Structures are given as C-alpha cells and as structure tokens.
Amino acid sequence: MFKSAGIKTYDLMADQNGINPNDITALYKKHRIRMIFLNPIFQNPTGTLMSEERRKKVIELSSEYGIPDVEDDPYSLTSFTGEKFNYLKSLLNGESFMYLDQQWVQKKDLSVLPFLGKKK
Description:
The structure is a single chain. By secondary structure, the chain is of the alpha/beta class. The chain has one domain (3-119): 3-Layer(aba) Sandwich (Aspartate Aminotransferase, domain 2), CATH 3.40.640. 26% of the residues lie in helices and 18% in strands. It has 3 helices and 7 strands; from the N terminus they run βββαβαββαβ. Helix 2 (52-65) links the parallel strand 4 and strand 5. Helix 1 runs parallel beside helix 2 (52-65). The two termini are 14 Å apart. Mean pLDDT is 75; it is low at 103-110 and 112-120.
C-alpha cells in the first residue's frame, strides 16, 4: 500500500518484546524517516506484543525527532484470553499520532498516504 503511493519503507526486526526502539534512532539518523508505522499488539507476522517500556520509548523518540506514530491495530480483538491492552494512544501527551483499527482497514482509506512517510 505504501509503496504503491510512492513512499519508501524500511523494515524493523522484532524480538519477543516487539521492535527495538534503538533501531528507530538508527533509521532516523540514516534515512531521516518521517513516520513510524507499527502494530504493537500481535505484530504481523510474528504475533509479538510490544512491551509497555518499548511503547513509551517509541513515543519518546517520535516526539524527540518530530515524526508521527501510526498505530495499526487490526489484531487486538483477536486475543484468546480476552485481555485488554494499552494502546500507544493511551500513553500520549499530545504527540503527533494516528490510530488505525479494523474499521479503517475495512474502508481502505488511502487518502492519508501522500502526507505520510518519505518520498523516494
């Protein structure tokens, strides 16, 4: 979806606690990324749940670098235990942020894409 809109993307590796926020710093310094797009709850394809400590660090870094976070949340309702999760948006203090849930995904509203990310 992003590539078809001409937006260059970069992958981040995830371990058992999700992505490593230090990798965001490295990407920002190397490529001057303009957005962080992630799904911290049951990340696809690993199914990992990002730790709250890392979520807070991601928000801190995005605020420091002045880049928005986009939280993609298509899977939080699929918890087998019924567990409720803290979304990134619940940890914010006015930072630039966009939350995408199942309803947004169903609409496939691509109108926001030209305003996000770094053009090739």
